[in-house]
Structures are given as C-alpha cells and as structure tokens.
Amino acid sequence: MAEWFEEILHPGFRTKLQVDKVLYEGDSEHQKLLLFENAVFGRVLALNNIVQTTERDEFIYHEMLTHVPLFAHGAVRKVLIIGGGDGGMLEETLKHRGIEKVTMVEIDAAVIDFSKQHLRFICNDAFEDERLDLVIADGVDYVETTCERYDVVIVDSTDPVGPGEVLFTERFYTGAKRCLAAGGVLVTQNGVPFFQADELRNTAACLRPLFRDSSCYLAAVPGYTGGVMAFGWATDNVTLRQTPLDRLQERVRASGIETRHYSAEVHAAAFALPPWVSALLERSPQG
Ligand code: AG3
What we know:
CATH superfamily of the largest domain: Vaccinia Virus protein VP39
Bound molecules: 1-{4-[(3-aminopropyl)amino]butyl}guanidine
Number of domains: 2
Distance between the termini: 53 Å
CATH class of the largest domain: Alpha Beta
Order of helices and strands: EEEEEEHEHEHHEHEHEHEEHHH
Structural class: alpha/beta
Oligomer: single chain
C-alpha cells in the first residue's frame, strides 16, 4: 500500500503527495522535520507537516525572492536573510558578485545542520562561503537590535503558524525597516493569496504606513498549492519597482548569473497584479 503525506494548511482543502521513501524524520527543538522522496517533486522537505521546498521547484521560489530585489537595486553589497534554513536563498544571493556579506538569521540550528547533511541539492556549498555571517537567533530580536544596515532584507519564512508567526507582525516589519540602508528593499514570502488572502492583506496593511512604496509580486510555485504565490515588496525608493526592462536586462547580462525561472522579462511581468490581488493590498474600509 502506498504511503501518502498529507498537508493540512488551508481550511477545507488538503494536499496529498505520495511518499516513495522517507529519507529523514525527526523533531528539532522548534519543529518536526520530514524529508521524503516523491515522483513528481523529487526530494520534499516538510516542517510541521507543511511543504517548505522541493527538489524540482525550489529554483522558482528561491530565484524570485532573491534576484528580483537584487537586480532591481543594482548595487547590493549586504543582504539579510531571515529564516531560509535550507540555504536556497543564501545560495542564490551569493551568486551576485557585488555581495560582501550575507547575514542569515535562523531560529532553528537543527535545520542548518540538517541542510548541510541532507539538502546539498539546494544549498550546495553556500554554508561554507566566507561572506556568510550565520546567526542562530529569533528574527524579531535580531532586526530590533542589530547595528548592521542592509541593502536587501529577504524574509524566507514558514507560514504564519508556529515559529514563523512573529515574522508577520507589525513589530517585525518595523524592525526590518530599521535595518535597511537608505534605498534598501524588503521582500517577504507571503503565501498563496487565493487561500491565504488575510496573510497578504495583513502584511500589506503593516507595510503601507512604514514605507513610501509597498506592493507585491507573483510567481507560481507548484509545491505551494493554490495558484500564484505572493512576495511582499517594500522600500522607500519609489522608483525601484519600475526599474526599466532594458536596465534589468543589462544587469542580468553583466552578472553572468544563470537562472532557470528568473529573467528580466519575468521580473518586470511579476509586478503586474490581477485586480483581485491588488484589492487585497488596498486600504480596508476600517482604515
Ligand atoms: N518558505 C515556505 C513557504 C511556505 C509556503 N507554504 C504554502 N503557503 N503552501 C520555504 C522555505 C524555502 N527556503
């Protein structure tokens, strides 16, 4: 009898993936870790029974949450990654030649050890890079206390249940803004708005008063069931979101970075929002 993994994340809806082989199962101090093999997605990482990343589609998520802010900015030297323990975001970030330092703040040390051992297909040698400053800490505490300032802050969180919940609060976003250098940009993992409309609505309502420009951009990541995923975007540099296509093309070409999903054209198109998504970003009648 085939064994199935069941993700219960959205009310009234469940996703099932066939488990061809369990590669790892265990509990860290913060969460339950599961790595299994599936015919469609390859190796699948689940935390607390929610799919976090998969071998076959991780490039879409990691490329879009890294290269969009970095190529839009154009002169990034320092990046802060909150979460991202699998190292996928770190690996993509380090591909940019101008990067001098990447601070990664992950709450769960066990996830980092696990990634180095089992997720090399995602992180490669990123954890050994000398530009990495790895901090095992609570992301909220870090953004409120660090003296460092970053050109880009990437929030690669879990969903707002369990350890990731605090990363969707006004308090955290205020801290994240505090550690941005002038003209810096904050991007966030914001769930699939078809199922998680309130998550995007809440983030948008928090970001709007804090930044001169806030919005979101979209990409479909098959492992995160439910259509397009939204990535939050916030910066005081109001021109960044409209970085002209020819400038993006030139930056991508000059970087020599090879991508499978990201391109300058995909970047520009990702900010085109269907009206039902734009509506979630707008001020609610209550304010
Ligand atoms: N970040 C988790 C995204 C979870 C989305 N889940 C969902 N809404 N189906 C993953 C970490 C990858 N580096």
